[in-house]
Amino acid sequence: MDLTITTAQLAAAAADVVRLVPGKLVDPVLGGLLLTADARGVVLAANDRERTARISCDALVHTEGQVLVPAKPLAETLRALDQPQVRLVVEGARLAIRAEGARFALPLLDVDLHPGVTEPPAPSGSVSATVFASALSTVATTAARDEALPIFTGVRVRSEGDKLVLRATDRYRMAIATIPWTPGPSTIDALIPATLLAEIGKQVVGDVWIGVDANRLSLAWEDMVVTTAVLDGTYLSESKLALSDFDTHVEADADALAGATRRVALYTDARGVISLEVGDSEVRLRTADRQTGEAEESVKATIDGGRTSPSYQARYLIDALRPFAGRRIQLAIQPGMRATVVTAVEGGEVDLRYIIMPMLPPKTG
Question: Where is the DNA polymerase III beta sliding clamp N-terminal domain (predicted)?
Fold first, then answer.
């Protein structure tokens, strides 16, 4: 194999694939990057047997061929180069990376041991990348990070007519985003790793085509195609939560409430819990601890319903308010230890509901 390509283009492609498929440390082959050069250009691909990524790049191919090299060293070398063009050429048992005044060489891995990259499932529909990324920035970060509970580390992606609904929970909170969807020949209902979707949300542009088969889901945009194994995510639904007995509604500025929460949270106990006391025309955030001291701050609000004083873990309340920055929000509060729902007063392209569970109030005195 022998080709010449723009350094920035190849560096960006290699970095994107490595972030999408980090590779298996215990198996060098599954941590490799498969490069295939032909008359159309070069394709970079990775497969760790759970997820795959493939991206096509324009290149001047002098000699066609296919090689497998360690992915991260290649990506890091390309990122460090500032020469405008780079040449990749096989030299014996190594792939040489040649730039003006420099040469680097990576060992070739056994390409015959690599599983390759199969064709993705046929598209089931499409969604705007901008809207999809906006929804993922909230929903994907709500999933659990504890790999000991894998069923809570995913995002349920479900098509419902002309809407695509994304849901995730770590058992203490849940985010549900509904966005416009252009449906195709089949429906989607799958649980996707949240870490993968979070990275995809940073990369997508244009339109994103999503497809699914018995055990895989694919996402494609521009020259990139990603596939991942899926889990049964039907258990993940807000229908299992009681969300109909709201007796208090609070409307407030999201930024003002978030700022007050951050300041009062500096004085919380080890659990990080604050109380939200609902008055006639304001809400008062309050906490007290023998070691850290005490704090309270009031925020103007429109109240509909009776007075109540639920308590929340401060970081969950801050996370719930963050996606509504610059907008007014409504807190729909249920009595007792039942879920609170945060929504925007005025809707947008992303219809977002953030559900948080209350906590026992902080101890005082």
Answer: 1-115
